[in-house]
Design goal:
This protein is an alpha+beta fold and about 350 residues long. The protein contains 8 helices and 17 strands.
């Protein structure tokens, strides 16, 4: 593996110590606590003209007492955790068609739930000004007119990818959390753990994938320079972080191989990712939180109504704060210039 510091590829790397974990809220948390969380979260209404992201984070911190579950602290040892049977809003409007939170969603239970889960996992939620209008909680539902887009806005099959892979390792979201509000036809999210993918690839292919022979494109969700799509300099798809773990950055549909050997390796990676994919069905009240540096995710085509909410997080915001000069209190960063690093 090529280390992110540019050292010679090393075939040895650390793996996750445990398999994915599935938690059923009603067996891990007292039912009375779950209902108290819903009742308290439903009271919250943001104050107009004050920073919404900051208000949400502060409110979620006050709700942690109702959701305490020690298993979430094990996240660093796991590729992902599923949690099922969580409380969400008592009533919901129709899923949004414009990518924004519906004005007629009266309560903020789901948003505060997602933030609380991240905080319990000892993560720092974050937002990017150029992604989803700087919102901390993203609305993930098909957008009118973009149904054929191979992105979170479309209905067609969405190839496996890591989010914001064009950013350097220290700036991209380390974890993603997804909460289902509506999933009418039980559309699956697919997660491919990098350890499982690597086990399916010969060493010669891994060596090619760990060399700077691939260009990453900026995703459609990133609105910079009038929506122009830009490509990175040649980079490796698989590298090694400072702790010896293999990390990945790629969108299997848009990543560009710069030569024939790289193209062959990319095709073999696509096959290995498909073979390693594990389906996760997110029904209303289900959350999955996974490592965006060590898992690829995608989904099948969407039939019926589907509405998820998404949150980005990292274990530390230090490097983003240093690189952007932003105030970490509201956890919102501009990545316009970071894309070019």
């Amino acid at each position: 593996m090529q280390k992110t510091t540019g050292q010679h590829p090393d075939p040895k790397f650390t793996q996750f110590r445990h398999s994915p974990l599935k938690i059923y809220a009603k067996t891990a948390i007292a039912a009375s606590k779950l209902e108290q969380f819903r009742e308290q979260a439903a009271i919250f209404q943001p104050v107009k003209d004050y920073d919404l992201n900051l208000q949400l984070i502060n409110e979620a911190k006050g709700l942690l007492q109702f959701l305490d579950t020690p298993n979430l602290s094990r996240l660093s040892d796991l590729p992902y955790i599923e949690i099922h049977g969580l409380p969400t809003d008592c009533s919901l409007p129709s899923p949004p068609r414009n990518g924004r939170r519906p004005d007629d969603k009266q309560t903020w239970v789901s948003e505060l739930l997602l933030l609380s889960i991240a905080l319990l996992a000892q993560l720092h939620p974050l937002a990017y000004q150029e992604v989803k209008n700087g919102d901390l909680i993203h609305q993930i539902a098909p957008i009118s007119g973009q149904e054929n887009s191979t992105s979170s806005a479309g209905r067609v099959y969405f190839d496996s990818h890591t989010d914001l892979g064009i950013l350097r390792l220290l700036y991209r979201p380390e974890y993603l959390a997804l909460l289902a509000l509506v999933n009418q036809k039980s559309v699956a999210t697919f997660l491919s753990v990098l350890d499982d993918v690597i086990a399916r690839l010969p060493s010669s292919v891994l060596q090619t994938l760990s060399q700077p022979r691939f260009r990453f494109q900026s995703p459609e969700v990133m609105h910079i320079w009038g929506g122009k799509i830009i490509a990175s300099e040649p980079r490796p798809i698989i590298a090694q972080d400072d702790h010896g773990a293999a990390v990945v950055a790629a969108n299997l549909k848009t990543t560009i191989a710069i030569d024939s050997k790289a193209s062959t390796a990319l095709a073999m990676l696509q096959q290995a990712v498909a073979e390693a994919a594990r389906p996760v069905i997110l029904e209303p009240g289900s959350v999955v939180i996974f490592n965006n540096l060590r898992c690829l995710h995608g989904r099948s085509a969407i039939n019926g109504e589907r509405w998820l909410q998404r949150l980005y997080a990292r274990r530390s915001l230090e490097h983003l704060v240093q690189a952007t000069g932003s105030n970490p209190v509201n956890a919102t960063f501009s990545i316009r210039d970071l894309v070019l690093e």
